[in-house]
Amino acid sequence: MSHVEDYLAISESYCRWLGDLRWCPTGEAVEYACDGPEIGLTFAMGAEISLFLEGFHSASRPISFSLILHLLRLLGLGPRSPRSQSLSTLEKAFREWGLPLRNAGALCARLCRDVPPALDPPNLAELTLTLTRPSAEPLGETRTGVAVLPPFDPPSFERLITQRISELTSDELRHWLRYGRGPIHEGVAERVAAIPRPRTLSAILAALESRPRLAGTMSLAVHLAGGLTLPPRRLAPATLPMGGYSDVATRGQPERILPTQLALEGDEFVRRFAEHELLFYQREEPRAPVPEEVVVVLDQGVLTWGTVRLVLGAAAMALGRQAERRKIPFSIAATSQEGNAVDPAQLSDEELGGLLESSDLSPHPGLTLERILESSGESRLRDIVLLTHPRTLNDPSVVAAARRMDSLTRLFAVSVDREGHVALSEISRGSAILRSTLRVELARDNDRTPAHASRNSEVGGWQGEVESPGFPFALGALSPIPDALFDFDEAGEWVVFTGQQGILHACRIDGTQVEMLPRVVLEGRPLSRVESVVGVGGGVIVVGKCGTAHVLGHYDFTTRRCNVHSLGIELANISEWSYLRSHEALVARNPLGPVFALDLRAEAKEWRFPPLQPTDPVSNRAALAFKHALKHLPDHALVVPCLLPLPAHGSALRLHESTGAIDIQNDAGVVKTIVPTTDGRPSLRGAQIRSTRRGGDVIAAAIGDSTRTSLLFFSTSSFRVLGTVPCTLKARGFAVSADGRYFARKSGERHLEVRAIAGESTPFYVSPRGRTHQRVNVMLSRSALVISVGEYIHLIRWDQGVLELSQGRGDRASYLACLAQRFAGQQNHLIPATRGHDLPSKDPKRFLASCSVLVLSVLVDFIGQVSVFDRSNQLVCMFYVFRDQLAGWMPDGTRMGAANLTGGAATEDGQARFWAALRAASEIEGSQSL
């Protein structure tokens, strides 16, 4: 099932309090399913929910969809019911301003700033498309995604919203609902009002920079100025001026070709035309200038929201400054003002700022554009520039309006999407002709982490309780992969497996990225013994030991953060961990059943059920997850012995060894029996089910006897075998993605392969094998570092004007003797790293050798990474060498060297940054040398 369907799934237990809501069969609206007069009545249309989510997404990360429906109920959707005074005020203010759902979404995002966001939310564009696109045929059932239980029960959530609303005044509520943002602080407003009125258009536009919603537009305007320059007009009069033609040129219109050129032979004529040697008459240009003006039409509708509006505002400023330099009139028309073009110089700063910040619910700017084009230009040449989203350029209303241009008007469009792609097009006869493109880097308004915390080891890396230095280089498996210690994340985009000393390897299954995750740290001890890897929403859970303490590490690939919890108990009786997406909980099990459940979104003091102490607080979701686990078999043990009845709830498999028939039960309790055959004979006769995994409607089972084992994939919706894969590995050595599309298994001691369950038999991804040297020798001086592996020797030197990287190969002893002679007699000679180290706070099992020279220290770990520290024991940089390849990494994300080792392209000025960092750490100034 897609992530969109999972997100839009409605929690039955939560929404029963709201009136038992459900999706209608066509998926176009949410309706009531309760018994009574409300049954079948529409609660909210999908398009309404889409507008609300777009506004919410602009100010915060999305929360549980059940909570979104609760917010819509509080805003007055559905039948009216008595509310507290604060909620009545909210509903009244919401209805008073004409149902601005997008602005209401932004307000609710502020009210829910303390509500935990949804894990691994879907892309907003896909979500909008699903909610607004009509279904060609009924869905048959309501949306069947996995409904996640919200972190609050309805009364608690309503109390939270009531408290947040009571903190806002009536004027603040109306301001939020009208503009989709809070009012400006009085102190800021007074300072803006104290600024004298600017006299030039540039000063007027620059004054808008002080407004919070327009902050940053001036710097964007400077960036956009070159790419949004309008092409000049050809000033050709209708009749020939005095003197007729004034010159001869090699370019011109066909009707101006000199008659003598027509006497040329055909091939010669074409050659001269192609090489611009053909002669044309050139007409005399008019001496009197023709008056011009620029009109900007700003689309403030449903598609231009957040960062798109910011860039469009910057584009308006850039065009205004161009008009001022050309000394031609400039005016702005906005869709929120019904297409009335106004001169910015005639408006106050507050009026102009309010004009650019306003929003409306118009689906396209077609009506406003039509009014501007039909208005009289008073015999003035006009350039009309439409500032909008790319999707509106193909809207029939916009295309029809563009055909109403007169001969004195040119129509351009500046389109901006949410990825920062900007395009300048000229619209002629309803079609857009691309003139120029550029791209601007934008930070998403709704992200609480910088730049959406890119899913790679870029600037910032992993945050949380993880070891430093980590493992920033992209190496494959360095040791045999344990049979059961690998899994997909919930989205099925990553596969994560463990290796030597608890190192975690994360690989995108499309092969675009490999990285090594930093290990969890508790009280200074790293998690060096991994006991379980479980894929969860947004990332993975790792359970293991830090010293003698059992800990749980939650790696979130979305936020690039790792949260660590001490379990505080011995886990000797825990055999399996399973994830319940519907409750966002982790369940610990043993062969007798569930032992306890952990709410991954709750505080550590209340996340466990049953609690360690009877008086400890308990998360409601943890309690519900534990009760759910009591009634359902875990995904790794869906096997029921042939002599026992199938369970009353959940999926299960039961194999009859004597006949080879297998009973398949789905979540709805429907049971069907099939008999897989090979050459007309039952293929499972005498076999046993050793282990199972489940993903979506697929159950994967390792089935075999004493001579052979195979992986069989059963569909619980169609009750058939999807595929069979021979398997000689242990029964526990495979994993299935949550959507049931892929499975992973070991294809060798150090390789993990990913295959499609219903696809080709060949794997489409195989994890790489790690490449490392068993022994790395390091020598350090104040301004040089020597790393040698086998016959390869690398010298890194930073006492000159640039970073010197040199390499030697051959007799190591001779090369080192040459270096020693080169540095002989100098104060800071090379000192070799020896076993043991001078930094006792570091992990002694990880770091094998070290050395120190004045203010610099170097540590060498067990996989060959060389870490350089400064006087204050802060990490400066890290190096990794494999044969003749050298790679470097800095904590700010700077990379240098081979991409197959660093995991990405080298930073453009990477060597310069390494040189500056090493000189600063070495406290080298001027041209001081070795």
Can you put this structure into words, describing what you see?
There is one protein chain. This protein folds into six domains: 3-183, no CATH class; 200-231 and 292-439, Rossmann fold (3-Layer(aba) Sandwich), CATH 3.40.50; 245-283, no CATH class; 471-631, Lipocalin, CATH 2.40.128; 652-731, Thrombin, subunit H (Beta Barrel); 777-922, no CATH class. The chain is 22% helix and 28% strand. The protein has 21 helices and 51 strands. α5 (85-96) packs parallel to α9 (170-179), α12 (217-225) packs across α14 and α16 (366-374) packs parallel to α17. The radius of gyration is 34 Å and the shape is globular. The model is unreliable at 136-141 and 444-460 (pLDDT under 50).
